[in-house]
Design goal:
The protein has 2 domains: 69 residues, no CATH class; 64 residues, no CATH class. The protein is mainly α. The chain has 5 helices and 3 strands; from the N terminus they run βββααααα. A 3-stranded antiparallel sheet has the order 2-1-3.
Length: 156
């Protein structure tokens, strides 16, 4: 893991990158002293850390419902990866990740994030969703993902 990768915290009025040395299971973020409580903390918000990073419950709830509101493409991509890991760890239900992808894809402006979300959506749909649930989800997935698949430059 890159120990000085930094975390991003969403404060009520901005997203702020805070330097953090991730060298223990729990670390104190001294740069956050005196700041208002964040709406979320994203341990890999700078996109450089590598390791098993877990979200606190408030950050998981905020990111899994409001990801498209984040302005930075890098932060959205890092958040998606962290949410994917949360789903793999059982902290986020597969249906929640599917719903997030379906709501996020029409608003996503970064092609790398679109590709990452489409790949994740495909995997969670086929590998982590029971067949009966896939049948129920199929019309919505096809309707909502069509625009993402028809983007200029995208090869189906």
């Amino acid at each position: 893991m890159e120990p000085d990768a930094g975390s991003r915290a969403r404060l009520p009025d901005r997203v702020q990158l805070l330097p953090v040395r991730l060298n223990a299971g729990t670390v104190e973020v001294t740069a956050a002293r005196g700041l208002p409580a964040p709406l979320f903390v994203l341990p890999n918000g700078g996109g450089l850390a590598y390791g098993e990073l877990h979200l606190d419950p408030a950050s998981l709830a905020w990111l899994s419902t409001r990801l498209p509101e984040i302005r930075s493409a890098l932060t959205r991509g890092s958040a998606w990866t962290t949410l994917w890991d949360a789903m793999l760890d059982g902290a986020l239900p597969p249906d929640a990740l599917i719903d997030l992808a379906l709501r996020s894809l029409p608003r996503e402006t970064d092609e790398l994030n679109v590709q990452q979300m489409l790949g994740g959506l495909s995997q969670v749909y086929w590998r982590f969703t029971p067949a009966a649930r896939r049948v129920a989800l199929a019309p919505n997935v096809e309707r909502r993902c069509g625009p993402a698949w028809r983007r200029p430059g995208h090869r189906a």
